[in-house]
Fold:
Amino acid sequence: MLALLSKNSETLPGRTGTARVDRDTRRLLDRLEPGDIAVLDEMDLDQVTADRLLAAGVAAVVNTSPSISGRYPNPGPELLVAGGVLLLDTMSSDAFGRIKDGAKVRIDNGVIYADRLTRRGPEVLVECLELDEGGVAERLTEARIGLAGHLESFAGDALEFIRAESSLLMDGIGVPDPDLDLTGRPVVVVGDGPGYAEDLKKLKPFIKEYGPVVIGVGQGAEAVRSAGHRLDLIVANPDELTAKTLTGRAELIVPAEVDGYAEGLDRVQELGIGAITFPCSGTPADLALLLAHHHGAALIVTAGATASLEDFFDRSRRGSNPATFLTRLKVGGTIMDATAVATLYRSRVSGVLTALSVLAALAVLIVAVLAAGHGSEVLTLAQDWLHRADLWAREMLNRPQ
Structure:
């Protein structure tokens, strides 16, 4: 008995934590805490899920499905491993039965143990295959070879979307008409994709100077309100937003199925607010872009609404990729990413400030030289010059580039 107590008091090798077990990944992500070990079922672990797992601070992820199946190079596993998260694929299908939710477990060399010792020694729960950086890189290389098949499938889905939504894409039939006039104005579309809060923060100087129309998509609407910006339009399911956001001054547009059914209309009636439905098979972010473009926006800046090549091959976006791709083609040259706009804005302001610094230094020098021999008259003239320079600087800062 004393020997058993002595073994329990020793520090056992490996990584320990509380197991959070759920086949519903979306529900699991909402209850994770730092240091937890997430047990989930996600074939081809996608970037969105990986970002949420990293943000939650999990110690390890145990996947009962292949994290990289080889169908295409999904970035989720690479992000997790690079972030220091232990990633394991189970070698059997009984992980959900063997690992209890809320139990303390220990992981060592690809084996999951109960975090306790018995008379027979460590209790093995599940044996796994640990995916390190080398293993992930090798599987991703193999997956890239299969891109041709995925591209063929994507092309077929895109053609189907064109058949279903040709009148919307080509002629704008079905795009709602909000009360707000967007013609010739810059528009900022704040989605709820990865990094949307950071993107919105980068745009703060741009929004302050140009006063664009701000469209919040999904949780992006909550982010706009929380940041203190004026929210003009909302494109979202009302069930996903707070009453404070919905009952503000922004117009509400509710995404709907092609047959007209829209989730969240009961909430609209409950709150006594107005809403317009927008039937389309695209994502809410796509709907916001089509809306802004159709009504003549001069520039559309996206925050949290990316459409990179990796996004197109991410499993979580596979069904929406054709709509996203074709929407970007439709919007064309009027769209810019928040990061690009923020970079251009900083370059413009820094150049103007440099010119102002040089001008101020010359003004001080001239005033000092002239005032030495001519007294108050020159000082009065110098003040007038400085006032004119100030007006010029303000005009430069407020002039659209």
